[in-house]
């Protein structure tokens, strides 16, 4: 099922709720991490957003782990993100990247694909989508795309 991606302006900060903890309860941590790994694999194949992310090796595995840690903790699992990353705010973590409304849309298109492949009841997929769609607006920080590879941006 395709999900709607709402339009936005830089600075939009909609309210949102955490994804339903039953997602983690239903899938278990291992399957949830596999879902996030697949999501990053889809990103790596997407010309519009791949350059924002590491493409291989330890950096890619770290990105997969960090994202999984965040969501596992958010849905009531072990506080992996706090333990490994110090509980950093996601807006703070992403501020070094030039994230535009267009790149947000590309990221969300990748999430649509990953969710379509996930074996999970629709209500729970919807809960996850509603979270990422609204929260992603908080991460957008520029209106005009600045160019640069992942490697160039992390040096900033």
Word description of this protein:
There is one protein chain. The chain has helices spanning 22-44, 57-74, 80-85, 90-94, 101-117, 122-139, 150-154. The longest helix is centred in the first third of the chain and has 23 residues, at 22-44. The protein is mainly α and 156 residues long. The chain contains seven helices and no strands. The protein has one domain (22-154): Globins (Globin-like, Orthogonal Bundle).
What's the layout of helices and strands?
Layout (H helix, E strand, L loop, with lengths): L21 H23 L12 H18 L5 H6 L4 H5 L6 H17 L4 H18 L10 H5 L2
Quick description:
With 156 residues, this protein is mainly α. The chain is 59% helix and 0% strand.
Give the second-level CATH assignment, the architecture.
Answer: Orthogonal Bundle
Helices and strands, in order, run as HHHHHHH
Strand proportion, as a percent range, falls in under 5%
| CATH top level label | Mainly Alpha
Structural class: mainly alpha
Number of domains: 1
Under CATH, the homologous superfamily reads Globins
What key phrases describe this protein's structure?
156 residues, mainly alpha, Globin-like, 7 helices, 59% helix, 0% strand, globular
